[in-house]
Amino acid sequence: xxxxxxxxxxxxxxxxxxxxxxxxxxxxxxxxxxxxxxxxxxxxxxxxxxxxxxxxxxxxxxxxxxxxxxxxxxxxxxxxxxxxxxxxxxxxxxxxxxxxxxxxxxxxxxxxxxxxxxxxxxxxxxxxxxxxxxxxxxxxxxxxxxxxxxxxxxxxxxxxxxxxxxxxxxxxxxxxxxxxxxxxxxxxxxxxxxxxxxxxxxxxxxxxxxxxxxxxxxxxxxxxxxxxxxxxxxxxxxxxxxxxxxxxxxxxxxxxxxxxxxxxxxxxxxxxxxxxxxxxxxxxxxxxxxxxxxxxxxxxxxxxxxxxxxxxxxxxxxxxxxxxxxxxxxxxxxxxxxxxxxxxxxxxxxxxxxxxxxxxxxxxxxxxxxxxxxxxxxxxxxxxxxxxxxxxxxxxxxxxxxxxxxxxxxxxxxxxxxxxxxxxxxxxxxxxxxxxxxxxxxxxxxxxxxxxxxxxxxxxxxxxxxxxxxxxxxxxxxxxxxxxxxxxxxxxxxxxxxxxxxxxxxxxxxxxxxxxxxxxxxxxxxxxxxxxxxxxxxxxxxxxxxxxxxxxxxxxxxxxxxxxxxxxxxxxxxxxxxxxxxxxxxxxxxxxxxxxxxxxxxxxxxxxx
Length: 609
Prior knowledge:
Elements (H helix, E strand, L loop, with lengths): L15 H12 L1 H4 L10 H34 L2 E7 L3 E2 L7 H15 L6 E2 L2 H8 L7 H9 L1 E12 L2 E10 L4 E12 L4 H18 L5 H7 L5 H15 L3 H14 L4 H13 L3 H12 L7 H15 L2 H11 L4 H13 L3 H8 L14 H13 L2 H14 L5 H13 L2 H12 L11 H12 L3 H16 L9 H13 L3 H14 L4 H13 L3 H13 L8 H13 L2 H14 L5 H5 L10 H7 L3
Parallel strand pairs: 1-3, 1-4, 2-4
Antiparallel strand pairs: 4-5, 5-6
Helix pairs in contact: 1-3, 4-7, 4-9, 5-6, 7-8, 9-10, 9-11, 10-11, 11-12, 11-13, 12-13, 13-14, 14-15, 15-16, 15-17, 16-17, 17-18, 17-19, 18-19, 19-20, 19-21, 20-22, 21-22, 22-23, 23-24, 24-25, 25-26, 25-27, 26-27, 27-28
């Protein structure tokens, strides 16, 4: 019974045929041997014992059926055409050579991605999951995590100035070695030749195993970067996953400069540029990558399509691409949920995000997972689930200021003012989070209070935020980021004239900044300066430069709404969405659109799709 219920599938009986002899032994005294010195049983005793044995046997059979079905279901979930390449084991005893094992696996993974008949687990997925494997059978565990029905693993050892690499291809369901790759060698300082040979031999072996007619063609068509380029890309990808985009870009672009056939590195760098708001730089890299379209794999083409759609503000195309990539890695499942939010599909976002385990692999450090899930719940009006999710996020990230924001806005939506106030006291006792900004978690909760009809509570929250902002040192208060936050908070506190003065100074320093100019326009409108507000709206309308993506039109919609022209404001808002503005929780709490909240066309526009 205990073996039937082992936690890991590999430790349980694998088939009914293996288990039936064990059950038969249980049904026979003394493990299957008929005892010699036994007193004869009465018919009643025999009947009772037979009934007990039958009941036990039936119960065990029921457990076995469930366990075997679970085992078979687990096995069925392993795709026999899906391949995961595990990091190679360093047998040299030299820590300085540890990176070679990761590069070997990443190199081979990249080569196999060109093989259209295979589904290859992305290297980032394997890298993140492999570091958390703790069982006695890491090959089987990696397969169960990634859904791979084939696992490539190996090791390397030193022989003079060279490293000798060995690899094998395993069926993780039966733990059967399907093919052992002949050893290959390369210089320890540049083993790229060895990685090439390994990738080609593994691809050829898999082609034969899967009975394809393209084994020879696959082997000859694969192109991989130089070792130096790959080493740079591995470092860049790691920095990217930790949000250090500037440093990541440096390594990723260096990788491409070392080997201009390395398009994957360019796409990584383009995404990092988009994450830091450098659309012109991203556009340049995407254009270079598109020149190699004909030799990209299907997954690489989808990734490039996703980048281009993201660059152009094409929300539906972006979602379509991330849906296509969602099965390849949890990061794309998360991304498809994120992209669904951007086109006002919060229910789809919830469904995608709930398929991701936030406590596994790279997600363990990704606090924004809880931002997207709670925001989707908020947009659906499911505030109790939103609060539960927010508190789960806080349990997972107790030291991150961001998670307090998720809980605060859920409490605000539920009208639980006293609980939110206690939470604000806790927030304001924490040091500022450099990744989030000054006092914004409190401010955004105040906006939710206002959006849900708790105006007095909202004003108290804004007062707390202003107190927090006033505590910063004089040199910090001169930064544009600080003054921007101060101006917004003054505006939301209905201190229109003070907010106007802050943004007037910012516009004088940065006359082309759409955000500052838009804030100044709505502040003028609130103060009754109709001509000044209209002039700024006209200036925003005349803006014609790349990468605005509707931001200028959105500010015109806000100015027009504050001036009282609901119909024109609605048309401008709808135009902003067509130009590239994303939907999101911001629209629900934007105070400049309060006059539209009972306007039927606006209600239909923001209703979740």
